[in-house]
């Protein structure tokens, strides 16, 4: 893969491209970003000056592009893909839009070398979680490139298309839920008397360390939770409050609500 062009250089486009540049998947000067928002183009020029950032697809020589990433909002995929159709024939096209199916992408683009990816924002720091599925004309080499590119910025799994909405509900939207957990843990620390910066530091580290422990020990989270809760101690008091507040069912229903919304967006 030599040249990559990304249409839409907002939150997720920045996380993906900046993560790939940091991980040396592609040098910055082989990436072009097209974004119709001049403030976004200015962001790229300031923060990733070696990436070519332009305001219109007309400023890109499509013949020089080997792969396209569509990183605009889901309702803009149809017009953008139709604009791309004449210049991306036979080229690998990757969409990260929630809800937009491989069938829709193939219909808009007029070919089947298309990949649907659901990444998440921690790709920015090399700790993303992405799921992807592919249409019929995607080659084994294309899949290897996708795994290399997304694998460089986190964990990547290939899934069946019917599972992508669930991936969206869990890991695609998940960073927002975890940020709410971190923010509310910090609020609790402040309520209990800690200064805000210290509370935030402890909250983020607790989430990061616990996730690392789940991954590295391979132990069930229930077992790790039990190891924290001493009989008659502090933790079981807190667990009792969380159970009464419906933490588990709220998380489960949040994931399902996001997955259902992903289905609707298509
Ligand atoms: N944010 C996230 O955590 C995740 C997002 N996604 C998916 O990524 C996609 C992008 O989301 P996100 O990055 O949050 O969105 P953003 O709005 O942050 O970024 C999209 C950018 O594309 C610009 N844009 C709009 N129309 C065009 C066009 N025709 N050509 C080029 N650029 C255009 C937008 O400008 P303007 O603002 O002026 O419209 C904006 O700057 C969505 O489809 C979403 O479902 C997937 C996983 C996670
Ligand atoms: O909220 C959204 O629609 C996008 C998709 C997954 C994360 N953000």
UniProtKB/TrEMBL annotation:
Kindly give the Pfam families that the UniProt entry links to this protein.
F420_oxidored, P5CR_dimer
**EC number in record:** 1.5.1.2
Domain Pyrroline-5-carboxylate reductase dimerisation intervals: 162-265
This entry's Gene Ontology molecular function terms read: pyrroline-5-carboxylate reductase activity
Record carries keyword Zinc: no
Q: Which InterPro entries match?
A: 6-PGluconate_DH-like_C_sf, NAD(P)-bd_dom_sf, P5C_Rdtase_cat_N, P5CR-like_CS, P5CR_dimer, Pyrroline-COOH_reductase
| Localization per record | Cytoplasm
Q: What processes in GO biological process is this protein linked to?
A: L-proline biosynthetic process
Write out the coiled-coil annotation as residue ranges. none
Broad enzyme group: oxidoreductase
* Pathway where it operates: Amino-acid biosynthesis; L-proline biosynthesis; L-proline from L-glutamate 5-semialdehyde: step 1/1
Per UniProt, residues of the Pyrroline-5-carboxylate reductase catalytic N-terminal domain are: 4-99
Leader sequence residues: none
Sum up the protein's function in the record's words. Answer: Catalyzes the reduction of 1-pyrroline-5-carboxylate (PCA) to L-proline.
HAMAP family, sorted: P5C_reductase
Protein name from the UniProt record:
Pyrroline-5-carboxylate reductase
Name of the gene encoding the protein in the UniProt record:
proC
């Amino acid at each position: 893969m030599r040249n990559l062009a990304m249409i839409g250089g907002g939150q997720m486009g920045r996380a993906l491209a900046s993560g790939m540049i940091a991980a040396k998947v592609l040098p910055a000067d082989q990436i072009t970003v097209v974004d119709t928002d001049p403030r976004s183009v200015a962001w790229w020029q300031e923060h990733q000056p070696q990436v070519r950032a332009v305001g219109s697809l007309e400023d890109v020589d499509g013949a020089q592009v080997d792969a396209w990433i569509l990183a605009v909002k889901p309702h803009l995929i149809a017009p953008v893909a139709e604009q791309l159709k004449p210049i991306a024939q036979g080229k690998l096209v990757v969409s990260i839009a929630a809800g937009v199916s491989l069938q829709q992408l193939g219909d808009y683009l007029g070919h089947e070398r298309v990949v649907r990816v659901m990444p998440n924002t921690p790709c920015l720091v090399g700790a993303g979680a992405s799921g992807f599925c592919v249409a019929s004309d995607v080659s084994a080499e294309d899949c290897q490139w996708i795994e290399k590119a997304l694998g460089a910025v986190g964990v990547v799994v290939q899934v069946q298309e019917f599972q992508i909405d669930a991936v969206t509900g869990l890991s695609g939207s998940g960073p927002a839920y975890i940020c709410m957990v971190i923010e509310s843990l910090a609020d609790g620390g402040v309520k209990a008397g800690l200064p805000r910066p210290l509370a935030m530091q402890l909250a983020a580290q607790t989430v990061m360390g616990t996730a690392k422990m789940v991954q590295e020990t391979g132990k069930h989270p229930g077992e790790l939770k039990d190891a924290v809760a001493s009989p008659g101690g502090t933790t079981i008091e807190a667990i009792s409050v969380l159970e009464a507040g419906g933490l588990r069912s709220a998380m489960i229903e949040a994931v399902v609500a996001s997955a259902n919304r992903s289905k609707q967006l298509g």
